[in-house]
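User: Hi! Is it possible to get a structure for several chains at once, not just one? Here's what I have:
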Amino acid sequence: MLDGVVAGLASGTAYAILAVCVVVLYRLVGVVNFGQAALGAFGAYLCYTLAGAQVPLALAALAGLLASGLIAGLVGWVLARWFATPTTTERAVVSVVFLIVLLTAGVRLFGDTPRVMPSLLPEEVFTIAGVRVSLTTVVALALAIGIAAGVSLIMRHTHIGIRLQALSERPMTVQLLRVNSRALSIGAWAGTGMISTLALLLVAPARNQTFESMSFLVIPALAAALLGGFSNIWVAAGGGLAIGAIEGAAARIDGLANYRGALPFLLIAIALIWMRRRKVWDDAR
Amino acid sequence: MNSKFKRSTVALSLAIVAGVVLAGCAADGSGSGASDGDGNGKVGPIMVGSVSSITGPAPFPEVPGAAQAVFDRVNAEGGINGRQIKLVSVDDGADPAQAAQAARRLVQEDKVVAMVGAASLVECSANAAFYEKSDIVSIAGIGVEPACFTAKNIAPVNNGTVPGYASLLYFASETLGHDKVCPVILNSAGLTDPYLEVIKRWEDETGSKAPHVDTSVALGDDPTPAILAVRDAGCDAVVFNANEPAAVAFMNTAKLQGVLDSADWLTLTSAYSETAYDALKAQGTLGMYANSEFLPFMSDDPALDGWREALTAANVPRTSLSIGGYVSAEILVDVLRSIDGEITNESVLAAFRDLDEIENPLIGMPFTFGDATSHNPNRASRMVQATANGWETVGDWVIVP
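Assistant: Yes, the chains can be modeled jointly so their relative placement is included. Here is the combined structure:
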């Protein structure tokens, strides 16, 4: 079973990084980005398409990162320009539209034929608990933890972080204080977009997923973000890793294997009920 | 004002009635003109139809395209007893409603005498009952859904995934001579049981016993758990039901877990493509086997010359699936030639029911139809292996009993 846990961590790192991106974006601009993974997939697929056309891998990866940053930035600009104080419904609609546009464009552009997906890192392999783990997985894990730590520090201890948080809570007040809120929110979109692409560039070579299935990695990521209440970055990151580990472990247990896809969500539902128990009881009193 | 209103209403009604009558006459006129040319006559073109997914998530434009290429050649050589064959190919956009509508239009308005060269994600389940009711036979180029292989009037010329999977099991145990053949089934909704049935039948008939049957991973998921399980079971051949991208990912995981060289890896025909080969080669996982449901299209077998020439002339991409469209059209042409009297949907259906068998060099067993209530006439696969020289054909046809 331990080998299943270790094997599942490879997927878990992708869930974790995406979950952190979702939480950060929600805390800063108040949008639950359903297209977070599709955005990353778009950048990653652009990279592999360029690499397939003999562009050096480093350049192709850079182009992929920039493209996803640019697309995300554009969405941020549209939101800031036309939806200055969006309602929850407007935010959700923008997010859903974004996912649909990205999915349609991506499937149209990249199709579902397999691609050569070269690894950004050398193909080193370690053995942990009887499972061979690639260097890429280790780096992705470090990246997930690093991003969670970095973002927490920035949000809590820097001037820009405090401005960003203020932006999500009182956008009008922040604007009245002459903070360039538009630049800040565009920056938040672009930054999370680029990080999602980086995450998928790291995990894609091991999975060789189609654009569509990559885009739906957002579902476990959203579940992990939910576990963190869309506010706690560390819980979201840990939740992502845990979902991967549970999926991996369940695959190695007879009787559970067929339900492994649903298992993490069942556990999350239980966790959420448990976390809310005090509030419900307090309200009842 | 009231009477004025009434008068104008009457006038309008009269105008509408007149319009409808005139339009009806016009339609009648063109209808009687077209009746010389419809499939039910003795002169004019023989109308045939095809409902395929030409757009949508998994488009197959080359399959009806290849059927058209056959008819182009037959027409250029003088047609069927001087009559040209006219194929009306309709796109269903992978939408069952569109597929149903298209079939009704083809049968009722275009008066097609048979359907041929179809390859659709939805058409068989949408139209099987309609074809049976309308006495229309459909020789499908590629049967995609299970419903294509369980209908009374539909006979696809490809194997389908489950017989294709069975051929890989027989090849692994009988031709490659492996004792520990492990089936891995990548789950997708509702499709696991037919695989388990075919594994059982293979075990009964060959006396093999699979050390491990893996159903733990869904198609598109990380295949690592399945690979670890077959590693622990000490399998020396692994038969898995991947589509093209999943096959590439599966092989990459096998390599990562260091078990690539300890077993042979065999998967379904969709991995038999140039794009999959390039990806397999780039990640260093050559050696994988796949089944080809037709004579392998990348081989230089002279039996493929006619197919190659016809598709090149018609500017249709040459894929493995296109052979399905090509073979289905050739079979229909053979049957049409055998009909003495009038060519109607009933006479075509009767000719197929009376058919003994038709040999075609591009499929591994003779095509039959008969009175069966379901059809899977082609259960023969030729195996190909990804080697340093590209895809190479291995051994003879493997026929699933």
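The first strand of chain B starts at residue 46 and ends at 52. Chain B has two domains: 46-160+300-370, 161-292+382-399.

User: Great, thank you!
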